[in-house]
């Protein structure tokens, strides 16, 4: 099957996979759900068709292995994630897994022999929608799960997915850019320099529920009004950070009713920056602001960090190989940072990592309007296949 047919097949597969959801009428696939298992079964059949040995590990990661004939060979990992956010687009995650399968299929059809094993992985929980703590699948595989993580998780057996240290000599991930830069520059692909650090927290405002008709305004301890004041402060303080982004993505009011003064409000806070010191300074400033709001309104504050991930630079050697592959096609090599988090952040703790971005329409992501061009996907498959070949030429299987 040539490159054009492979990329067409890949686009059809994104559609087929995008139809596997746990919510009617929209795409939502969360960690260890029945929909996730059905997706693993379908993608596993495509891995098998590409000649890979397929298995699902104890953390519900899907793995497809291409064994090298070289004795004592190390393993290079390719892939991305198969879980999604709620009401997701079809490409955030799956595009990277399916591109890796297509690149491997292309090389195997060309009877290529590699001096290293290749594993294609579909990670089971990059988005963290189910437990609000991200990267459960990749952290289980990397062996970096903490006791605090596991306290949230019902599926304790995921720790058994841990792979021996040193088994992988690198990880490469293809992913949609989820931003507007490649489209602005009219480029199909870009090479990622680093992935932003992120802090995820849970913030609660505790006030006093009361009758909406009888409690005078001055005597209220309205938790939702306090949360609302805080949310606007999040926007203002992040905007001052020159490159920091901060988001309150979820807000819930306990026992909410139109005639009840909200006594309790819970929100999620997500703060990101390429500079860890700046990110941590913004988190500190936001905590101080939340305390001041609570003091002024007579509320109690609960400030719970859920997860921290430091900013991660991509490996220079692997990034240079990607850059050479892109340049080889006569394309400008645009290098750019990632504001979004990726499983590559986790793998960087155990091996060198690199990422290739694919242009996506208007930079839209975490939205069903997510879309990519077949021609750009074809470039990504070609670049990734070439990347693997150059890796084979440039190293004896260990960087
Ligand atoms: O939140 C993120 O950056 C990624 O989409 N999980
Ligand atoms: Mn995402
Ligand atoms: Mn993603």
What does it look like?
There is one protein chain. The strands form three sheets. Strands 1, 2, 3, 4, 5, 6, 14, 15 and 16 form a nine-stranded mixed sheet that branches. Strands 7, 9, 10, 12 and 13 form a five-stranded antiparallel sheet that branches. The protein has two domains: 3-196 and 311-395, Aminopeptidase; 197-309, Alpha-Beta Plaits, CATH 3.30.70.360. It has helices at residues 3-18, 34-49, 94-109, 136-142, 147-152, 181-185, 223-239, 276-297, 316-328, 343-347, 374-394; strands spanning 53-56, 62-66, 75-81, 117-123, 168-176, 189-195, 197-206, 210-211, 245-247, 251-253, 260-261, 264-273, 300-309, 312-313, 335-338, 353-358. It has 399 residues and is α+β, with helices and mostly antiparallel strands. (2S)-amino(hydroxy)ethanoic acid binds next to loops.
Would you state the CATH class of the largest domain? Answer: Alpha Beta
Unreliable stretches, pLDDT < 50, 5 or more residues?
Answer: none
Number of domains: 2
- Major β-sheet profile: 9 strands, mixed
* Secondary-structure arrangement, i.e. CATH architecture of the largest domain: 3-Layer(aba) Sandwich
Structural class: alpha+beta
What share of the residues does DSSP label as strand, in percent?
15-25%
> Radius of gyration over alpha carbons?
23 Å
Q: Find the CATH topology of the largest domain.
A: Aminopeptidase
Task: Estimate the mean pLDDT confidence.
Answer: 95
Number of helices: 11
Order of helices and strands: HHEEEHEHHEHEEEHEEEEHEEHEHEH
């Amino acid at each position: 099957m040539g490159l054009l047919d492979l990329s067409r097949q890949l686009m059809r597969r994104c559609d087929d996979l995008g139809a596997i959801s746990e919510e009617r009428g929209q795409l939502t696939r969360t960690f260890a759900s029945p929909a996730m298992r059905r997706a693993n079964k379908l993608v596993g059949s495509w891995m098998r068709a590409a000649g890979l040995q397929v298995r699902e590990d104890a953390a519900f990661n899907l793995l497809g292995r291409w064994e090298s004939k070289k004795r004592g060979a190390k393993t290079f990992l390719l892939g991305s994630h198969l879980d999604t956010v709620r009401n997701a687009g079809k490409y955030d995650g799956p595009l990277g897994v399916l591109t890796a399968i297509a690149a491997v299929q292309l090389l195997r059809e060309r009877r290529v022999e590699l001096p290293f094993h290749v594993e294609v992985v579909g990670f089971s929980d990059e988005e963290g929608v189910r437990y609000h703590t991200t990267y459960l699948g990749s952290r289980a595989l990397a062996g970096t799960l903490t006791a605090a993580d596991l306290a949230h998780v019902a599926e304790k057996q995921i720790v058994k997915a841990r792979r021996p240290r040193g088994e992988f000599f690198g990880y490469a991930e293809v992913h949609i850019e989820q931003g507007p830069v490649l489209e602005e520059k009219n480029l199909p692909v870009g090479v990622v320099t680093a992935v932003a650090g992120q802090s995820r927290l849970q913030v609660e405002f505790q006030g006093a529920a009361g009758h909406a008709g009888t409690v005078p305004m001055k005597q209220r301890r309205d938790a939702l009004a306090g949360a609302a004041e805080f949310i606007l402060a999040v926007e203002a303080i992040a905007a001052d950070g020159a490159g920091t982004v901060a988001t309150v993505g979820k807000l819930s009011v306990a026992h909410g009713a139109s005639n009840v003064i909200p006594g309790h409000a819970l929100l999620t806070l997500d703060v990101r920056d390429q500079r860890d010191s700046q990110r941590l300074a913004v988190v500190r400033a936001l905590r101080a602001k939340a305390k001041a709001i609570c003091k002024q309104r007579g509320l109690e504050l609960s400030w719970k960090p859920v997860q921290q991930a430091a900013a991660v630079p991509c490996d220079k050697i692997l990034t240079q190989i990607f850059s050479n592959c892109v340049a080889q096609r006569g394309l400008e090599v645009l290098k750019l940072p990632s504001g979004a988090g990726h499983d590559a952040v986790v793998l960087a703790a155990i091996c060198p990592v690199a990422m290739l971005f694919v242009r996506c329409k208007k930079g839209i992501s975490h939205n069903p309007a997510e879309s990519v061009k077949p021609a750009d996907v074809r470039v990504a498959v070609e670049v990734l296949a070439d990347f693997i070949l150059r890796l084979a030429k440039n190293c004896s299987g260990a960087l």
